[in-house]
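Need residues for this backbone.
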């Protein structure tokens, strides 16, 4: 296959927290900086094998950032065009990278009444697929190849690092990561509990819809790919709490993660405070990406105050 980018194993970090030992799968070590490398590569490889991609194909996809970035790089390696459909919450660094790689970026500017842009992004994807010749939509929200990537790659690598496991924490956006990783983990550790981490204001698990400002976690739809049967519990994390967890991680552990990573660690803190045990549980979690793309948001005190503190008060 021309231009194929091979996946490689990402490392883990082992952290000792008050009340638990935590194994962190560091997906920022992927070639393009995040766990979406897994699903993007797997989807394109399978589509190519089925004859759905040719030299004339234009790939079109809705993304809040990382999936678009992974697709952009992989499509460029394949020599095919990619048109990302994005919204104003796209990180500036990711936007600059996409502009350097893609000849065209489609923006949507009108949110739904809850402040979410996903419905508009999906509608624009549909229009582009209809109008562009040889268009291909990976559909990360429903494509089972995305979950398969995390079963065969992320999940398989994680269980190889574990001798025991009590709890698995995974952030949920499209649902592909938690579905694939949880299935692989539960085959090896059937008594482990799976905790889904969602953003406050996300509709996936029925929370009251509200605007969200940090991309990567949560959704205004219930993704078709999400397997609810593997989930034992859901923790909703407010964005300001996720930001504080990001800063704590980098100060106390030297772990420089993105907003979703902060949400996962905030959820672990909440869970341990609510469910004290007589023994130290072993927890595994996924850190989806690094903090570089969040320097002008999560790690910018002015942005945090203006967007999450003043915004909440207005």
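Answer:
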């Amino acid at each position: 296959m021309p231009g194929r980018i091979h996946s490689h194993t990402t490392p883990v970090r082992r952290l000792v927290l008050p009340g638990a030992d935590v194994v962190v799968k560091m997906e920022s070590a992927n070639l393009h900086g995040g766990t979406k490398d897994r699903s993007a590569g797997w989807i394109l490889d399978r589509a190519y094998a089925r004859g759905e991609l040719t030299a004339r194909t234009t790939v079109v996809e809705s993304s809040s950032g990382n999936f678009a970035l992974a697709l952009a790089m992989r499509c460029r390696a394949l020599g095919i065009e990619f048109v990302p459909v994005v919204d104003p919450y796209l990180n500036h660094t990711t936007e600059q990278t996409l502009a350097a790689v893609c000849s065209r970026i489609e923006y949507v500017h009108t949110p739904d009444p809850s402040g979410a842009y996903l419905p508009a992004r999906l509608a624009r994807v549909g229009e582009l697929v209809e109008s562009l010749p040889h268009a291909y939509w990976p559909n990360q929200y429903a494509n089972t190849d995305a979950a398969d990537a995390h079963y065969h790659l992320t999940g398989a690598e994680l269980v190889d690092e574990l001798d025991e496991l009590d709890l698995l924490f995974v952030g949920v956006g499209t649902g592909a990561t938690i579905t694939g990783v949880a299935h692989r983990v539960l085959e090896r550790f059937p008594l482990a509990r799976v905790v889904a981490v969602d953003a406050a204001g996300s509709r996936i698990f029925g929370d009251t819809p509200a605007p969200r400002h940090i991309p990567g976690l949560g959704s205004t739809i219930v993704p078709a790919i999400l397997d609810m049967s593997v989930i034992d519990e859901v923790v909703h994390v407010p964005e300001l709490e996720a930001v504080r967890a990001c800063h704590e991680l980098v100060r106390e552990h030297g772990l420089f993660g993105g907003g979703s990573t902060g949400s996962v660690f905030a959820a672990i803190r909440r869970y341990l405070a609510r469910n004290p045990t007589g023994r130290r549980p072993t927890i595994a979690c996924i850190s989806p990406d690094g903090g570089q793309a969040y320097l002008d948001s999560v790690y910018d005190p002015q942005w945090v105050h203006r967007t999450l503190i003043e915004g909440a008060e207005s």
